[in-house]
Structures are given as C-alpha cells and as structure tokens.
Automatic annotation (TrEMBL):
It comes from Neptunomonas phycophila. It catalyses: pyridoxine 5'-phosphate + O2 = pyridoxal 5'-phosphate + H2O2; pyridoxamine 5'-phosphate + O2 + H2O = pyridoxal 5'-phosphate + H2O2 + NH4(+). This is Pyridoxine/pyridoxamine 5'-phosphate oxidase. One of its GO terms (molecular function) is pyridoxamine phosphate oxidase activity. The keyword Oxidoreductase applies.
Length: 217
C-alpha cells in the first residue's frame, strides 16, 4: 500500500538525555527555571527566550502563538505586545494563561500556568524606549491582529512616521505595553529513553510555598 500523504506515524526520535529526580530540583521553581534557562542560553542563545503563549477567550476557545520572554523574577514572567491584539483581547476577557518553553537541544520543556496582569506604564515606557527605532515605528503604526489592505499600506505608514520623527523619539502608543504571568503551577519535563519521560510538578500550597511531585509521562 502506498504511503498516505501526510502520514507521519513512521517518524521516530529517541531521547537520550540524563533524567531528573526530585532531589535534584530546587525548592523554588523560579530558581529552577533560572538554572535551566542559563543552560539553554548556552546551547541556543538566539532562541532561548522564545515561548508559546496560550490564551482562551471568554467562550473558552484557545489560541497559541510564539512570543519572547523579556524579563522574569520572583514576581513572574513578562512580555510586551499590543493590548488590542487577539491575545490582548483574550486576556482582557480571561486573565489566565500558560507559557511553554521547549529547548530541542536539551530535550527539555517547561510549562508555567497562572494569572496574567498588565505591567505598569513606566515599565512599558522603559522597555519601549530601549527598542531599535524600526521596532518602535512598527509598533506605533501597526494595530496588531487588525485587518489591513496590504503590506504597502503598513510600509507607507512607517515611512510617514519616520519622516516626522525627530531625534529618533517615538512615543509609546497607549495600546502597547507589557504583561506579567504570575505563576501558580510549573511543570519541568525531561525527555527520556523509550518515552518514559520525567515530569516534575510544582504547585503553590496554602502557605504560599511550593509542593513538588512527580507525575507519570
């Protein structure tokens, strides 16, 4: 029988990484994330901050896209975007989301779930003003996720704004800013041989600390 178009059942890969145990993990999942992130940064520094952001609208319909992590600390994980974009509208209706990091060379992924809040305008200003001029011009003219007649229309708007710009000064649009995901649950996943993967879960407890347990792959 001829192979069906799009049939990927014969595709295989084997995971060969060293496993992880509870005793190897830090008590604080953000500190553990920082450790894994530092290792991943050495392997793929150009792609280490890429993460999938999954949201759901008020009807529960999910959507996912790649965004870039811009900073993280004990308060959460932050990125920047247009508040009027599809993800911004979804977060306005349902302020819970999940972010996912997958680092292929390390056979590792981290899922982080939690509530999302907007960053302060001062934080958005600080990051916006640190971006290259071209990125600031694009963010100013582009109403993310909204229809446009053509690419030429967008490019013309950027050119017009660039001609009006003095001393590379572009104001941050009020509709553009940052979000922070405040983590409630982490999953650290390590690929293992024969698909018997390691999955370790951190969940917040009643004392605002973290409980760690292993779950089955």
């Amino acid at each position: 029988m001829a192979e069906e178009q799009g049939d990927l059942t014969a595709l295989r890969r084997e995971y060969v990484a060293t496993g992880i145990t509870k005793s190897m993990m830090k008590g604080d999942p953000i500190a553990q994330f920082a450790d894994w992130f530092a290792v991943a940064r050495q392997v793929r520094p150009d792609d280490v901050s890429s993460m999938t952001l999954a949201t759901a609208d008020k009807q529960g319909r999910p959507s996912a896209r790649i965004v870039l992590l811009k900073h993280f600390d004990e308060s959460g994980f932050a990125w920047y975007t247009d508040y009027e974009s599809q993800k911004g509208q979804a977060l306005a209706d349902n302020p819970y989301a999940e972010i996912l990091f997958y680092w292929y060379g390390l056979e590792r992924q981290i899922r982080i779930q939690g509530r999302v809040e907007k960053l302060l305008p001062e934080q958005a200003d600080h990051y916006f003003n640190s971006r290259p001029l071209g990125s600031r011009l694009s963010a100013h003219v582009s109403h993310q996720s909204h229809p446009v007649a053509s690419r030429e229309v967008l490019e013309a708007k950027v050119e017009d704004l660039a001609e009006q710009t003095v001393d590379d000064c572009v104001a941050r649009p009020a509709r553009w800013g940052g979000y922070r995901l405040i983590p409630e649950k982490f999953e650290f996943w390590q690929g293992r041989e024969s698909r018997l993967h390691d999955r370790l879960i951190y969940t917040r407890n009643a004392n605002n600390g973290w409980d760690l347990q292993r779950i089955q792959p």
